[in-house]
Amino acid sequence: MQNQHIEALKKIVGDEHVLTSVEDLHCYSYDATPGFSHMPNAVVKPATTEEVSKVLALANAEKIPVYTRGSGTNLSAGTVPTKGGIVLLMTRMNQLIEIDLENLVAVAEPGLVVADLNKAIETHGLIYPPDPGTVTTATLGGTVSENAGGLRGLKYGVSKHYVMGLEVVLANGQVMNVGGKNVKDVAGYDMTKLFTGSEGTLGVITKIIVKLVPAPEAKKSMMAIFKNLDNAGNSIAAIIAAKIIPATLEIMDNPTIRTVEDYAKVGLPVDAEAVLLIEVDGIPEVVEKEAAKVLEVLKTNKADEIKMAKDAAERDKIWAARRAALPALAKLRPTTYVEDATVPRNKVPDMIRAVNEIAKKYNVTIGTFGHAGDGNMHPTIVCDIRDEEEMSRVYKAMDEIFGTAIKLGGTLSGEHGIGLGKLKYMEDQFGPVAMEAMRNIKRALDPNLILNPGKLVGEC
Amino acid sequence: MQNQHIEALKKIVGDEHVLTSVEDLHCYSYDATPGFSHMPNAVVKPATTEEVSKVLALANAEKIPVYTRGSGTNLSAGTVPTKGGIVLLMTRMNQLIEIDLENLVAVAEPGLVVADLNKAIETHGLIYPPDPGTVTTATLGGTVSENAGGLRGLKYGVSKHYVMGLEVVLANGQVMNVGGKNVKDVAGYDMTKLFTGSEGTLGVITKIIVKLVPAPEAKKSMMAIFKNLDNAGNSIAAIIAAKIIPATLEIMDNPTIRTVEDYAKVGLPVDAEAVLLIEVDGIPEVVEKEAAKVLEVLKTNKADEIKMAKDAAERDKIWAARRAALPALAKLRPTTYVEDATVPRNKVPDMIRAVNEIAKKYNVTIGTFGHAGDGNMHPTIVCDIRDEEEMSRVYKAMDEIFGTAIKLGGTLSGEHGIGLGKLKYMEDQFGPVAMEAMRNIKRALDPNLILNPGKLVGEC
Known about the structure:
The structure is a homodimer.
Chain A: H1 3-13, E1 18-19, H2 22-27, E2 42-44, H3 49-62, E3 66-69, E4 86-89, E5 96-100, E6 105-108, H4 114-122, E7 126-127, H5 140-146, H6 153-156, E8 163-169, E9 175-179, H7 191-195, E10 204-211, E11 213-214, E12 218-226, H8 229-241, E13 248-253, H9 254-264, E14 274-282, H10 284-300, E15 305-308, H11 312-323, H12 325-332, E16 335-338, H13 348-362, E17 365-371, E18 376-383, H14 388-407, H15 426-445
Parallel strand pairs in A: 2-4, 3-4
Antiparallel strand pairs in A: 1-2, 5-6, 6-10, 7-11, 8-9, 8-10, 12-14, 12-15, 13-14, 13-17, 16-18, 17-18
């Protein structure tokens, strides 16, 4: 990038919205993923779709890479500016444009923080379900671009299940609108879904129409402790087979249980092979009925201990244990990799067992917790990125974890995206034909390869 | 197409599976859409993915158009072989490959009839929700390619909400697998959604993984009669605002009511401006609660008469009235156009009123019924396609109907697709930028433009 480009960018968004100092650039050289960083040449903060359009037209003409970014909380190095160029910071475009109660949709700019959206609709008895752990800082645009999920994914799905329409600035600066407020809309290719989860590689999202859903009237939480992992696995399968879809159905494995107990002293038995944490929600009558049914399934499948939360305080205690999982594991060592290898839900015990064997094989510390009900595991590797020898073992363990997920019919990502972090495994999951088809789409929509180049589908 | 091509096709699928007689070709020259037909050169019936792959490799090399077809029930001329070439008839590939009860998914070939899928999973207490009117003849592949919906769309969505994975043969004959059995899967571009609803323009679907859901334990149906259309419209909005999502929330307007009553004598008041037909489903306790709430909403919004079905016989009577709508209208005149212009649900009364005005303006007969809850209207024009003067008025009326839907923030299709029937309105809805983006995708995946050429996104 040359000085004249910086000057041109300043003319578009205003001097104060183009950052070029080393300190500023450093702040945007990395995201929440360990091990990836690269300095951009400029951080540009547009305020309008028109400004985004002008920035892209310039970048496209001059072949300058552009990395769209929200709060940078993603876990797959999706926003790291690996080839220099422009970090396009969307946080100034943070307006909640409309809450449409008749159609149960909201219209917002991408920089809106997800928690702020939920705060604004709470008084109307509505929720926007995707709730990644970073919900208080993550932006709507970032979560939509990474297809973020969260604890409620089993019942409520991930971001793509809520995005109804988008305004997108294409690589050449042209603006298009796809989708809308229609509950049913099958006209044309599903461009809304194509751009959702495309990690900034196909266009810049400048407006988002999302579906809202009624907040559940009641919730009921419980915890089940298993000395035998298979009984936990059977319970998961049996709950689903009983046609109950809990809002949340989480698992923590033995390494996680021990670490959480050591960290938070919540009374977990350290010899348990697995703990399940379950919440059903909905209309009070249904919640009672489903909770009773889940209880029965857990007993039938030999849960060694079951705690049903009697009130909000007990409910909070159950979820405090689950919420302690990541901080407890992260406290063990300087570096934390939270992965999201996902398998069909009947393969959850196989996956957990394989991860524990991989941990032993490479002598690395891995705690596995996560969304058992939807097969979305979070094998979490704690290590020290400065220790080369250890890291060589860590990387081998990662390779085997993702290889195992794919072998079990799983996927590289349940909710974190691919970015750079998991790029090298993509062909193992998709094969060369699907990879080439995806690259063809990338080239068709971004012929100069300026948008988050080298990510998700790799070099084109 | 030359003789050598026919011979090559026979070598791939066997002599008896290549049809070339004029009688046979005539049968595949049209589909359920009035006004479109063209003779193909051959009808080819593959039995395996490998055969499909070989047929496409040949067609691609020789630049022969290929129109993938199931039962041909579509209403947007999506399968009419308008440029000659090969009709690829998928009805031999009709196996239900797997019912996976642990993961609540089914795997099937595209030629499987949707009703047969539902019959096979019924004993397990499961349903595959998309239920177009043609469910007993339509194939899974056809409904997935056209993104078919049905009466339960309000609560259960359309086909794309159930497709989890696909095997697709690309234009060049290469085979790819995308998606799978994972409840959460955000790896790569959402190719599964891109191909779902792509109307055979991007590839040939040879295997489909669909999500199944538990059948509702209970249902409750009711009918509400309104002398004033606005009260019906307000009721629709108020039901949704009360955070109830009925499985079905249908409307019939006055012309439809009069026609149905004349045809079926079900006791509808012919001076009513609108009838709403509503069904809530789910767990018995919830159904009772929601039905009571709907009743209250209907009363508050001045329904002139409400009939709540007390038993299955009364329920059947209510839905018989709705099911009579299309045959009753179709009986009036030789030609029937069932359109699916869709609007945000709060615009339903505006849309119905506009359609009635358009009918008067052009002196054509239009009955509007359809899925009020999700805004998916079916303005149904009955006419005589042999009457040129009348048809010129009919076409003008259609133009205005779709123009009005777009003006109201709606979409050209809620569940029937675009095909050729609505192609000319596409740019009005999407604008030139999105149209070009879609054409870029088409060209990227089908560079020789052999797959259902000229449809959905037009000439490329």
